[in-house]
Design goal:
- α2 packs antiparallel against α4.
- It contains 31 helices and ten strands.
- About 2% of the residues have low confidence.
- It starts with a helix and ends with a strand.
- The strands form four sheets. It has a three-stranded mixed beta sheet with strand order 3-4-5, with no helix packed on it. Strands 6-10-7 form a three-stranded antiparallel beta sheet.
- The relative contact order is 0.10.
- The protein is mainly alpha-helical and 676 residues long.
């Protein structure tokens, strides 16, 4: 049984009322044609392997003894604590499903939000770390010569790792044995993997805001294809200890873990990495620490490149110290950090020398049993090259895969990368140049990144991966094909702003009925008093706002434009977008396992009259049924007809809050709504 706390509540309700009144088990996504594709495998991992994620046996025991629930739903105390945890996991599962379907940053954001809330419960305190990367890329990367998205990319990497764990027994055993988890239950091991793989994959590129300014300066002088080198103007960093320094509490904790005292994350990670692989790859801790110390301060020593992985690891370490607290940090947290710092240039060019012209210097690829998190990150980071927005000037001229289809069957990986058939002229020109080069190898080898890397019987793409990580336990085959582009799932609209303001909008929208002028802290406290499921529902409203505006010929922006300003939505606007909001709500509840029903209003309750309203509200959450829900697969027309049958009270709920959002947009971010 995948969601065991939901099942326990179902059994309890059946005993209480005499028949099965729910809640129902949420359905698992299934692909009838291929059960081991990326989406199926990643979601199956979350659905089946991660039972009892973040459960608390002591709280469950207290609930059984007192009869008082400790879980959070719409309000505190409405459901059992472990039932809330089951629903939290379902939120992550559905968030990842929506992202894999769309690949857009807005859906990637919900995965980040869900993960942080489940494992740290502190999204509001970490949102700057998460949001800065996307904001920086969207606004600053067009100044670069080469740059592609890393925000949605990281969530794809996360999904790839889940799929590999789910389908590859060798990796599961390697992870178990490396962390000495023999004898532990499978779900306990899977839950540990989810936590620390999530840390590794979702945050492996958060250091890019440190690399981007470096690249911007160089790009200014590379417009004429000038090679970077001794004559390049570049920047480097000073006072790095402000980012890498460890306070006394952190130093004490790491000394307890490793028997050594460290003053910086560089010292800590140099020690950890050397212990794991120094003997196998012939390097010392002193050598590695010297490399790490020079990474941010002497980029000229590394081909005039800045390594974002160094900053990602240091930045995440500080965040863990601040939120998780040193006393709760383990060697697995450090392993996530060392995996991140290894994944880019450190491993390739300072340890393995995988492309050195002197082949005698090249070292063996990394095996999964040497550092399972680093091995998986390197593999998935290389595989995830599709569906990435190109920001850099040269990157926009290259040819990258639009989509990818994976098959993880038979303990292997089969990947088919699809390219835009409309780019056939670029491809044909490349193929002609390649034929000329094959006939005369003295000519310069042509390249059309990334298409050329995947062309041929033994593509460079596959060869490079095999030089980085040992794939003997999970053989990799890669093919490419041409296809027509379908961007319908991208939901691209005119509305734009400097970043995804969803969290701030949702907090304000949720607090719209608070009296007076509440402070930001008060509004955030009210927002966080509801469960993750209800917060995501409010976020869903604000995330779909651009689509609703698009339907009524409007858009929002923080730029001054010569269009009619909108200050209020009327009934004509509501007639168009209110049914859209109702459909979002219906489909969201269906995905989360809710069903249509009036049982919470009609079942007999033995409670005093003054408590009946609150008890029935709690019963609705325990049964997970609602009179406004709809069952079975529905068309747009069926949901619209359902909306038309609602009373005015319920119809108003689907549009009137957006008038409040107009005020919030203006006051909090300077955004304005315009009509075309």
């Amino acid at each position: 049984m995948a969601y065991t706390a939901l099942e326990k509540m179902r059994q309890k309700n059946e005993a209480r009322f005499g028949y099965d009144v729910g809640p129902a088990q949420p359905p698992l996504y299934t692909n009838r044609r291929q059960k081991n594709d990326l989406k199926s495998a990643a979601l199956r991992f979350l659905h089946n392997r991660c039972e009892a994620l973040r459960f608390d046996a002591k709280k469950e025991e207290t609930e059984d003894l007192t009869g008082v629930y400790l879980g959070q739903s719409l309000k505190p105390g409405q459901i059992p604590y472990n039932m809330q945890r089951d629903i939290d996991r379902l939120c992550l599962e559905k968030a990842l499903e929506a992202f894999i379907d769309s690949g857009i940053a807005e859906d990637a954001y919900v995965v980040y939000y869900s993960f942080l809330e489940i494992f740290f419960g502190q999204y509001g305190k970490s949102k700057k770390m998460v949001e800065l990367l996307s904001e920086y890329e969207a606004n600053g990367s067009s100044l670069l010569m080469k740059h592609r998205d890393h925000y949605s990319h990281s969530v794809y990497v996360f999904a790839l790792g889940l799929a590999i764990y789910e389908t590859n027994e060798a990796y599961r055993l390697s992870f178990r044995d490396f962390y000495r988890l023999e004898g532990r239950k499978e779900n306990e091991i899977a839950n540990l993997f989810l936590e620390f793989w999530g840390l590794t994959s979702l945050f492996h590129d958060i250091g890019y805001p440190f690399e981007l300014p470096f690249e911007q300066v160089l790009s200014y002088f590379e417009v004429d294809d000038k090679e970077r080198g001794e004559d390049s103007l570049f920047l480097s960093y000073r006072s790095v200890e402000s980012l890498t320094g460890l306070d006394k509490e952190a130093s004490d904790r790491f000394e307890a873990l490793y028997g050594r005292r460290f003053s910086t994350t560089s010292e800590l990670l140099a020690h950890d990495i050397t212990e794991k692989m120094g003997g196998s790859y012939g390097f010392t801790e002193e050598y590695l620490l010297d490399v790490l110390d020079r990474k941010p301060t002497r980029p000229e020593d590394f081909g005039y490149y800045m390594d974002h992985a160094f900053f990602s690891a240091a930045r995440l370490c500080q965040e863990l110290i601040r939120i998780v607290k040193p006393a709760n940090m383990t060697a697995m947290h450090v392993d996530a950090l060392s995996a991140i710092i290894l994944h880019n240039s450190l491993w390739k060019f300072a340890i393995a020398f995988y492309k050195d012209r002197d082949k005698s210097k090249r070292k063996a690829p990394l095996r999964m049993d040497q550092h399972p998190l680093a091995w998986l990150l390197m593999l998935c980071d290389e595989l995830q090259c599709w569906d990435r927005t190109s920001y850099g000037r040269n990157s926009r001229k290259e040819l990258h895969p639009l989509s990818a289809r994976f098959d993880f069957s038979d303990q292997a990986i089969s990947a088919v990368y699809s390219y835009d058939a409309a780019e056939h002229e670029k491809i044909e020109a490349y193929e002609r140049e390649r034929a000329e080069w094959l006939a005369d190898p003295t000519k310069k080898k042509p390249r059309l990144k990334a298409y050329s890397d995947m062309a041929g019987e033994k593509p460079d793409f596959t060869v490079d991966i095999e030089h980085i990580v040992d794939t003997s336990a999970i053989p990799l085959t890669v093919r490419l094909k041409l296809c027509r582009v379908n961007r319908e799932n991208k939901r691209t609209y005119l509305s734009e702003s400097n970043f995804l303001h969803f969290y701030d909008f949702a907090v304000s929208l949720h607090a719209r009925k608070m009296p007076g002028k509440p402070s930001r802290e008060e509004m955030e406290a009210k927002f966080n008093a509801s469960s993750l499921e209800y917060r995501l529902s409010t976020l869903g409203r604000t995330r779909h706002f651009a689509a609703y505006l698009n339907a009524i010929g409007c858009f929002y922006t923080d730029k001054p434009v010569d269009f009619a300003l909108v200050t209020h939505f009327g009934k004509k606007d509501a007639a168009i977008f209110a049914p859209m909001e109702h459909e979002r709500w219906v489909r969201e509840h269906q995905a989360m396992g809710w069903r249509y029903g009036l049982d919470y209003e009609t079942l007999p309750l033995d409670v005093p009259p003054e408590r009946e309203e609150a008890e029935r509200a709690a019963l609705r959450e325990q049964l997970r049924c609602h009179k406004l829900c709809m069952d079975r697969h529905l068309t747009h027309e069926e949901i619209r007809a359902h909306y038309q049958r609602l009373s005015k009270r319920y119809q108003d709920l689907d549009w009137k809050p957006f008038n409040k959002l107009l005020e919030l947009l203006k006051s909090s971010d300077g955004l304005r709504i315009y009509r075309l």
